[in-house]
Amino acid sequence: LPKRYEGSEKSVWVEYIQLALEYKPLNLGQGFPDYPAPKYVIDALSEVASGENYMIHQYTRGFGHPRLVAALSKLYSKLIGREINPQTEILTTLGAYEALFSAITGHVDDGDEVIIIEPFFDCYEPMVKYAGGVPRFIPLRMKNASEGLPSSADWVLDQKELESLFNSKTKMIILNTPNNPLGKVFTEKELTQISDLCKKWNVLCISDEVYEWIVYKPNKHIRIATLPGMWERTITIGSAGKTFSVTGWKLGWAYGPANLMVNLQMIHQNCVYTGCTPVQEATAIAFEKELKRFGSDECYFVSIAQELLPKRDYMTQFLRDVGMKPIVPEGGYFMIADWSPLESEVDLTSETDRYKDYRFTKWMTKNIGLQGIPPTAFYSTPNKHLAESLVRYCFIKKDENLEKAAEILQKWK
Ligand code: PMP
Ligand code: GLN
């Protein structure tokens, strides 16, 4: 095995999806909705697929289907406050995964350092290593508990520690807001601190914003590309899977200045070349519809967070009721909870995994019938100990299934 692949042999997704198939627990593991996506989105795909235009089933423009890049340009020009060129400043990809891969591989050279904020979506680390880069990690740390319920806002970067990671070898920082798995939504002040360091050290920012529309009031999603001097050095990534609750469509995109985007286009043209045409056409139709009702309560970009808020609050309550300590997320559809108060009721010796959260989640899947994800998967090896007493649950699920999860936990306790 080439050295740069070492350590990435195992994937929490491969392992836990297999486990779910085998034991059939109530699945609050991998993040996807278990109820229908908006009807008009599904109708768009079915009309595109069965319509008169049979050419929609053939290859489309490699860097992005024209109708989709036009819609993305319209939307993000408005949000970023500058004209985004659909030909040169946008790339559509096979999921946000490919956008991340192209952005990282297209820029990181041997020995370049890449700053990753923990907990992080797990593919960042292997992608940086595949490109020959050196990941440098910095964990968000829980500051002294504020009043009321602990929230993802209590998890912050230490400014001195962050500064100490930047040096002349730093090529990029990967930001994820709203964050998976914590749900943290970075504030303007936090983003300004990051952007000041990026400008000082001439560093690129890859901003993974796949949960951009899932932010709970009064929190606000701020695109780091809108901060002064940041457009020039930021590549922002989105996902149709998260935007329209169709994770199986595996359509993503990246946008940023043309001189950076050429590097992503290069990777894309040689590894993938072109994406799925009908899925891009249907997504364009969905964006066109949302653009027409942008900002209104009916707009899905507004209603999705409203739809998820009671689910978030319900989960917070039932986890507390059984004695766990949930961290209320400001965005996204995952919740981190501390399960250690229940440790005496779990048989952690029945599994052989090195980290306790793996043993806890496997034991729960097999014996209690409820699946969550072990958060040490979102930490570098030296920092995994920070997450061993935690579990991640997904709450973009039918109320009925969240109620079942609550029942399963109550029955066990
Ligand atoms: N980034 C984050 C933070 C995610 O949670 C996901 C979820 N899969 C992705 C990227 C990848 O998205 P996609 O399914 O569009 O490839
Ligand atoms: N983003 C989703 C999650 O975090 C899906 C992960 C994946 O498909 N690898 O659960």
From TrEMBL:
One of its GO terms (biological process) is kynurenine metabolic process. Pathway: Amino-acid degradation; L-kynurenine degradation; kynurenate from L-kynurenine: step 1/2. Residues 25-408 form the Aminotransferase class I/classII large domain. Signal peptide: none annotated. Its cofactor is pyridoxal 5'-phosphate. It catalyses: an S-substituted L-cysteine + H2O = a thiol + pyruvate + NH4(+). Keywords: Acetylation, Aminotransferase, Lyase, Pyridoxal phosphate, Transferase. GO terms for molecular function: cysteine-S-conjugate beta-lyase activity; kynurenine-oxoglutarate transaminase activity; pyridoxal phosphate binding. InterPro entries: Aminotransferase_I/II_large, Kynurenine-oxoglutarate_AT, PyrdxlP-dep_Trfase, PyrdxlP-dep_Trfase_major, PyrdxlP-dep_Trfase_small. The keyword RNA-binding does not apply. GO terms for cellular component: mitochondrion. Coiled coil: none annotated. Homodimer. Belongs to the class-I pyridoxal-phosphate-dependent aminotransferase family. This is Aminotransferase class I/classII large domain-containing protein.
